[in-house]
Amino acid sequence: MLTLYGIRGLTEDPDYAGGLNTQNIGGYTSLGRQASNPQFQNPSVYNPKVNYSRFLGPLSLKAGYEHQRIHTEIQDFTPQYGRDSYSGQFTRLPAAAANSVYNVADFLLGLRGNYDAANVLVAQYRQQMHFLYLQADWKFSRKLTLNLGARYEFATPQYEAQNRLSNFDPQTRRLVAATDGSFRNRSGIDPDFNNWAPRIGWAYSLSPKTVIRGGFGVSFIHFNRLGGENILSGNIPWVLRPSIAQLPSQGLCRAGQAVQTCFRPTPDGYPAGFLDPANVSTLTTRSLHIPVDTRTAYTSSWHWSVQRDLGRDLVGPIITRYRHVLNAASRAFE
User: Fold this and answer.
1) Which domain does 126 fall in, by range?
2) Parallel, antiparallel, or unpaired for β 166-169 and 174-177?
3) pLDDT digits (tens, 9 = 90+) for 34-82
4) Cα–Cα distance between 240 and 276 in angstroms, integer?
5) Together in a domain, 208 and 245
6) SS3 50
7) Burial category of 58 from C-beta neighbours within 10 Å (exposed 0-12, middle 13-18, buried 19 and up)
8) In terms of Cα–Cα distance, which of 12, 48, 231, 32 is closest to 126?
9) 195-232: per-residue pLDDT in tens?
10) Based on the domain organization, do 201 and 89 belong to the same domain?
11) Does pTM surpass 0.70?
12) Alpha-carbon distance 13 to 18, whole Å?
């Protein structure tokens, strides 16, 4: 950045440096690189499972257990290479109406109204899951077959291998850092132990050529991906994202002056120590929050259909009804 554009203070690490940092000009497409790059999520899944079947005449029983251990490297905290924004307050006359031409003028003169950046963190997220099921298929009669079953699922909330996350507490208005101990301590969220999923299905033969089928089931959703909004490692003190708003009334920054109290034009870049906790607080930085009592999201689905033998090697549906209802967590992420 310094060699190509004369902007100081940004990393020279080749893993993150390169090109022009993001230049947001109000009313226009941003110049430079995308603020969210580089980013990645690299998951590894360990998934042992065992199943058992037993046949007892017209009754067949199945049972099983599955375990998933998910490790995910996450680098999704922006803007790591800085972002400068221009909104026209420096070149627009006090009595003039807002116009995007002033935003361009501010950009050409290096008069940014805001600048922000984030430090680099590669979070090591973890999640464990345990699934149990029991299913019975019962040929109740020559015409009727029943499928009955139940499944239990438990998934820990996501936690970080080194406890590098914190959750915002709206009651105390503070960030609560993860600690060693229970999954609640490590994730900042209460585990949900109530994930029972019933299954029921049936098939009835009206005639040798016509069959009615139906079923109902509940399934749970343990994978949440809301951009970076559910990655609590993005909170202070693990990720620092100082954002400095600048005003025409401020004088140029002097050596050692607090960055919040003075003006730095674009070529002056980012001061030494910009990514310092002293430049960040919950009053000026958005905090991520997941309610501690968030339930596991689930879906309910049912269907029924009538199938008819239409001829040699040909079967077609006469009537098919299907319904799929998503039941989100008890409260949305905030």
Assistant:
1) 40-75+122-238+295-334
2) antiparallel
3) 988 888 899 999 999 999 999 998 999 999 999 999 999 999 888 989 9
4) 8
5) no
6) strand
7) exposed
8) 231
9) 999 999 999 998 888 899 999 999 998 876 666 788 99
10) no
11) yes
12) 9
Q: How far apart are CA 192 and CA 157, in angstroms?
A: 8
Q: CB burial class (10 A; 0-12, 13-18, 19+) of residue 187?
A: buried
Total domains in the fold of the chain:
2
Spatial neighbors of 141 by CB under 8 A, at least 6 apart, are none
Look at the block and give the residue holding tokens 């003028």: 105
- Asked if residue 213 lies in contact with residue 304, where contact means CB atoms within 8 angstroms, the answer is yes
Strands 243-245 and 166-169 come out as unpaired
Token pair 């090109």 is found at 19
- Integer angstrom CA distances of residue 26 from 29, 89, 94, 286: 8, 11, 18, 21
Q: Are 307 and 318 in contact (CB under 8 A)?
A: yes
User: For residue 194, which amino acid is it?
Assistant: N
* Cα dist from 310 to 181, 210, 298, whole Å: 63, 9, 38
